[in-house]
Amino acid sequence: MSLRRAATKGVKWTGASGVAVSALQSLRLVIVARLLSPEDFGLMAMIMVPMGFAGTFADTGFSDAIIYRQETTKEQVSSLYWTTWLTGLIIFGVLIAATPLAAQFYREPRINSLLPWTAVYFLIGPVGQQFKSLLQRDLRFREIAAIEIAAAVAGTIATIGLALLGYGIYALIFGQLLSGAVDSVLLAVVGWKKWAPSLHYRLRDLKEYASFGAYQIGERCANMFSSNVDYLLIGRVLGPVVLGPYTLAYQLIVAPVLRINPILTRVAFPIFAKRQNDPAVLRTGYLEISKFLALVSCPILVGVAAGAPVFVPVLLGDRWSAAIQLVEILAPVGILKTFANPSGSILLAKGRANLSFWLNVYVAVEYLIVFSIFVKSGTTAIAVAYLIMGFINFILGQVLINYLLGLTWRTYLGAIASCTVSALVMGIIVRFSWYVIEPKIGVSLLSAALLVFIGAVVYSLCILVSEQSYVRNMINLVRFEQQSR
Asked: Which regions span the lipid bilayer (predicted)?
């Protein structure tokens, strides 16, 4: 199978998975937000910070190394698998031991009874974790997509069901555990057929993965810290009640897009890794991915921000009104994260995990300093600081990618300009439409539906006018895929 054909099929399946999982998680968020309190979401955000840090060590950085190296012997597969198992056991023990420290840091004793439950995930994840990397390396995205959707369905049903039964924050915890268990077990069932590990274990089998994996762990730790330092500081200084709306705003506006972005970037890394020595191919692929992500993500983020005064109360209820302004501010943050997303695949495909590591270290230190200064001013100040720093960091990261690919700013901006401008035009019209609609029908499901319809029509017309050839090529690609079946 050609790389183009493999990429097309990969995008199709990861697209199906990304959209389905994002839709299920958004549905779960909307329903559960009406059943749980802002404090419950704030507590969950507190718990997920140590869980996120622990997760960066879960595969010891070997997942991406497996994809990058391309060839893995049976002995190496076994040694890597048992290393992942051992790491999971160690992480579980460390989290249990660190639980009192986390509760003390947040000044929140309820953490003592909540964090140990979430830590159980690290006894479940190693069962199938490595097989996802092997399936991804071999471009078997159909199996991965089916498993992810099944896990999301199970987690959504469990979370909503337990919330309806009055389990409170435990609905979020147990729903997440069930989703992780389904994902891990199904990956093991599929992967065991080809890569069943033996009882073999030798440290020397890990040697060639160690340096790449070490930088991956470091990069993920730095990235995890920079992504959660706001949660850390808000949770410690302002408490779970204030953290709740901030968390929900982030999950509503940024998290869905970050789940959709890997539709292409997950496929891009193994594809780029196979062509890592061909700069022209990498440059073209990077521009195509950037353009498509802008095409899909910009209208979603701009549209949600423009209609936030009606979307938030209609979807989540009146008690979440504090999240409206946060949604409006965090939307551009999501756009900047979307633009920066493909750079990770390029750095890994070029074997420059070290550059990714140091860039994330810089961002982590920057966020810690700035957020520490503004946290007492409230979540709005934190969100504004997040936006300003996000813009600066996007510029710095893109300068690095331009250098590695021999890319100019003019070429890069030319790839994303029309989609971005079209989304901004749509956002202005949607917000103006809301000012016209509000006095007549107020905040309602009808007004929300009208804004969605107006936004969809305006954006579609803008794209059809500004990107006729691109739309035509996309249609031809879909036809080619259907004819090739």
From this structure: 12-31, 43-68, 80-102, 114-132, 144-163, 169-192, 292-316, 352-375, 381-405, 412-437, 443-465
